[in-house]
Amino acid sequence: MGNVCIHMVNNCVDTKSNTWVRPTDLIMDHPVKPQLPDKPPQQMLMHKDDDKPKLETSGEDRKSLEESDSHQEQEGSTSEEEEERKKRAARIACGNSKRKPHNVKRLMSAGLQAESVLKTKTGHLKEYYNLGSKLGHGQFGTTFVCTEKGTGEEYACKSIPKRKLENEEDVEDVRREIEIMKHLLGQPNVISIKGAYEDAVAVHMVMELCRGGELFDRIVERGHYSERKAAHLAKVILGVVQTCHSLGVMHRDLKPENFLFVDDQEDSPLKAIDFGLSMFVKPGENFSDVVGSPYYIAPEILNKDYGPEADIWSAGVMIYVLLSGSAPFWGETEEEIFNEVLEGELDLSSDPWPQVSESAKDLIRKMLERDPKKRLTAKQVLSHPWIRDEGNAPDTPLDATVLNRLRKFSETDKLKKIALKVIVERLSEEEIHSLRATFKTIDSEKSGRVTYKELKNVLERFNTNLDNSDISGLMQTPMNEHLEDTVDYEEFIAAVVRLKELKDEEANDRLESSTKML
């Protein structure tokens, strides 16, 4: 959350050489739901006049304790009876249960009061909804289908474990996301929030459920795609931007993955779904934290001085991708991408651009203007001849290569998500948390990447005897086909997973050798 959210996105095609560029992605943690006893032997009670949890014993325990006290008062008690009395009292103090109370202690020590994030009592999510299948998971939370008990209506529930909110900034990010979604409630083409709930373990956001799939998937599935259709989609996207800006909200992470169709119908609405990086913004207010997704990030964000105009740039990149199937500024590393964003030439001449209308190219030039002051506003974009209702976007099908590129774009992203899921499932929650914290520590510039030397230093902390060639071998994985000067979090995790496998193999070899010797 917050300032470290540089996310790599889908693969792109170099339109000049027709080669694939493989970007990388920050790994998405797979949170594990804590398993707590249904009826803990000790009930934690929070009193208004006391911030410390108090323990309440059950009626049976109190009776046992009273009997123990009465027994203590009896004369002539033997030493054995006294010892038994002490044991009974100790069992009562521990909840009269064989289960160790460390889970309760962990929750108490973590300071997870029910109102610590939302600052208000919300009731328990499961009082109102039944949780169903998992829809997906991201860096900070997991999304489930949930059914409202009173109506049977289905919604999406995004659950954010509090253990992932490591500081006050993370907590503020969650609060702000909920506030912004409530602020935008009822606006067209923006996902609706139904409510927010908080308990001792997580914050839950109940939202409108979109089952129609991602933007690129829909285009590829339908098979028929024209400039006019692209113009219609562009109008929806810019409508969201205009709505946000008019209400004092800057999105900061516009990209195709953040738009979903509500259902499978041909005329299904397209809605913006993710406001995790969005900010409230006042007229003339500028920001300096570097956030977003590299292919869609505006140059002024990289220069750490930007405002809402950055959203127009990102939307312009989306239109470019919709019309060509590739990104306007690409590279094999984040550094190369950023250099292209800052200084690269905008290609509107190679295939398939000769078949695209001049009006569309004119709009893209004006949206991808590097000077934010000269860039079109959302209102001006919506008034452009190519995008307005009576616009001049042709209805002729776009070149078949565009659909093929979009298909590859979408398929590669799915494979990448599967790979990430495999990585995550091979690590325990504790290992992921530890590695994430380690990566954050050495990533001092919050760029989402660390140097090769820093990686080597981290691996050496695992008490390994790996030399440079060994580490190079670790990095020659599907996650990094070409060894680079820096690695991102995903590659970092992949290297550590591979290292763990090697150490396990070594341990098995030693065990096998010892067995043979015996």
The order of strands across the largest sheet is: 5-6-7-9-8
Overall mean confidence score, pLDDT: 73
Share in helix: 40-55%
Full CATH superfamily name of the largest domain:
Transferase(Phosphotransferase) domain 1
Which spans have pLDDT < 50 for at least 5 consecutive residues?
1-78, 89-112, 474-484
Tell me the radius of gyration.
28 Å
- Straight-line distance between termini: 54 Å
Query: Can you name the CATH architecture of the largest domain?
Result: Orthogonal Bundle
> How much strand content do the residues show?
5-15%
The domain count comes to: 3
And the CATH topology of the largest domain?
Answer: Transferase(Phosphotransferase), domain 1
Enzyme class: transferase
Protein name: non-specific serine/threonine protein kinase
Organism: Brassica oleracea (Wild cabbage)
Keywords: ATP-binding, Calcium, Kinase, Metal-binding, Nucleotide-binding, Phosphoprotein, Repeat, Serine/threonine-protein kinase, Transferase
Structure explained in plain terms:
A 5-stranded antiparallel β-sheet has the order 5-6-7-9-8. Mean pLDDT is 73; it is low at 1-78, 89-112 and 474-484. The protein is built from 17 helices and 15 strands. The chain folds into 3 domains: 2-30 and 211-410, Orthogonal Bundle (Transferase(Phosphotransferase), domain 1), CATH 1.10.510; 125-207, Phosphorylase Kinase, domain 1 (2-Layer Sandwich); 426-517, Orthogonal Bundle (Recoverin, domain 1). With 518 residues, it is of the alpha+beta class. The chain is 42% helix and 14% strand. The protein is globular, with a radius of gyration of 28 Å. ATP binds at residue 158. This is non-specific serine/threonine protein kinase. Keywords: ATP-binding, Calcium, Kinase, Metal-binding, Nucleotide-binding, Phosphoprotein, Repeat, Serine/threonine-protein kinase, Transferase. It catalyses: L-seryl-[protein] + ATP = O-phospho-L-seryl-[protein] + ADP + H(+); L-threonyl-[protein] + ATP = O-phospho-L-threonyl-[protein] + ADP + H(+). Its EC number is 2.7.11.1.
